[in-house]
């Protein structure tokens, strides 16, 4: 369950960073 939680958190953070960079007009690669 710990690994699943970490993966879920990583995906969530990646999406947030990706969205933030997108708003800044920067194309961000997919972050796992």
Task: Describe the structure in brief.
This protein has 32 residues and is mainly alpha-helical.
Description:
With 32 residues, the chain is mostly helical. It has one domain (1-25). It is built from one helix and no strands. The longest helix is centred in the middle third of the chain and has 22 residues, at 2-23. It is rod-shaped and about 35 Å long. It starts with a helix and ends in a 9-residue tail after the last helix. The mean pLDDT is 76.
How many strand segments?
0
SSE topology string: H
Q: What is the overall number of helices?
A: 1
Arithmetic mean pLDDT: 76
Low-confidence stretches: none
Main beta-sheet annotation: none
**How many whole angstroms does the radius of gyration measure?**
11 Å
The coarse silhouette is: rod-shaped
Helix content: 55-70%
State the distance separating the first and last CA atoms: 18 Å
Integer tally of domains? 1
Structural class, judged by helices and strands?
A: mainly alpha
SSE layout and pairings?
Layout: H1 2-23
Task: List the main descriptive attributes of the protein structure presented here.
32 residues, mainly alpha, 1 helix, 0% strand, rod-shaped, tRNAsynth_Ia_anticodon-bd, ATP binding, ligase, aminoacyl-trna synthetase, arginine-tRNA ligase activity
